[in-house]
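Table S2 (text version). Query chain:
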Amino acid sequence: MNFLDQIFARLETDFRLLEVLQPARQSVDGRTLLDRIFRARAFLATKNLKKGDRVVLLAPNNIDWVAADLAIMAEGLIVVPMYPRQAAEELVTMMKDCSPSLIICGNVELRDAIARQWPETPPQVLLTEIFLKQDNDSRKGPPALHADSDPVTIIYTSGTSGEAKGVMLTVGNVSHMLDCTSARLDKLMHDNAGQNNVFHYLPFCFAGSWIMLLTCLLRRNKLTLNSDLTKLAEEMRSANADYFLNVPQLLERMRKAVDEQLWKTRGLPLMVYQRVKAAYMRVREGKKTFSDSLWLSLASLAIFPTIRKKMIGANLKALICGSAPLNVDTQLFFMMLGIPVLQVYGLTETTAICTMDDPAHVEPGRVGPAINGIQMKLGENDEILVRGPNIFHGYWNRPAETAQVLRDGWFHTGDQGELSAGGNWKIVGRIKNLLILNSGHNVAPEPIEEEMLAQLTDAQQVVLIGNGRSYLSAIVTGNVSAEHVRQTINATNQSLPHYKQIRAFKIVAEPFTIDSGLLTANGKLKRDLITGTFSAEIEEMYAIKQAV
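Corresponding structure-token output:
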């Protein structure tokens, strides 16, 4: 049975499955969701679509999104999920690339924005319309027959340095990945698959988020969906989740919020917290003293449970983190609180995942070993190469770009990595992001940027500049003082060789955003656009070097 057959069989069992907290609390069980899938399938059957036709799904997370996604695939069509907050111009560019036969929009505003950008748009329909009364008896059956090689989705990459490309993922890709994720979560939850509560806030149109959704359906988890990011903190606590998927940005903010609150409180709570953190680090370094044991015992009884409950809820077994490397200090912070942070690494082209932390053998700062059936090795410039049943079959209508990354049976990820003696991988940075100074030195910017951000609590982003230059400089965004930036750079430089040291900086008050076009849909820096947008400021930094 492939993954669609398995999920449909699970849904036949009546159990509480999905819950949406905003704007009005709504819950569905498996059979109710299955009925909505049949309604959507009946609607699609009236559109004279052929196997392999593309259907764009452009809507925020909700129960109807899940039903539509499964219905499209069950009809033998290819679902093309897109991010509803992305600029209409960028969305239309991707739509024109994949030539959809139907576009399903989450609301009228999205539908009209697409029509304005693309007057010759294919047929559009609102998501709610596909669930209106349909004669769905003819669709009350198993999914269409699929071969492992059949594509079921095209997910567009974030396009940090160019036009987004459509990644084709097949039935075989997804089936293998769900087997791997289910097995790892069984290990985390000690095979208690039927009792898990999972909280979810990341858009389903991203590969990792989609795989988590399908995994939860396969494992019969109760999945609570956030649809209002302004209520994220409140809903994380009320969901009482066993685990949930995160991006580093949220975990960094959570850690900073605790630190800032204790700094404001000062007095005894701050003193105890600082002593406990110092004790925890000494224990990790093998330098434990008797007083360290006392402080940590006190914290485990009286401090950490309070912080955990206030941040996330009392039931959490682990946080799962992906999309970008997590700052090791943040990972250690949560581990100190008694919350394991399990990292995953992968790309859309690898069906979202290549590695996953083993709950029993976590190495902070690393992203775990390769998952079952996947081979990984280092190539030229320490580039991570991957092969296995999770590797995509190609980019939609882009044979040349496909050939560039799929060579000799291996997928070239573009990421620099290193492998520990224990078999755990670490992601150093993106090869295409390497800054090559005019001295010939190569610098991966990400580790230095992350270190600075960990100290600059008021900053939103740090971007290193220096390609073809004689030294590195930095753009820092957010409400941060020049003196704080200067102190942070001085502290960071002390541990770096001369060619990696930062000699100038520029503060930009407005953070980079998706709406400004300087971040990708999943929040990654568009470095080329940033350097182009701030070219005058960059030239000024190199014309008059600031003292740091």
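Notes on Table S2: The chain has three domains: 3-242, 248-314+316-431, 434-543. Residues 248-314+316-431 form a domain with the Rossmann fold fold (CATH 3.40.50.12780).
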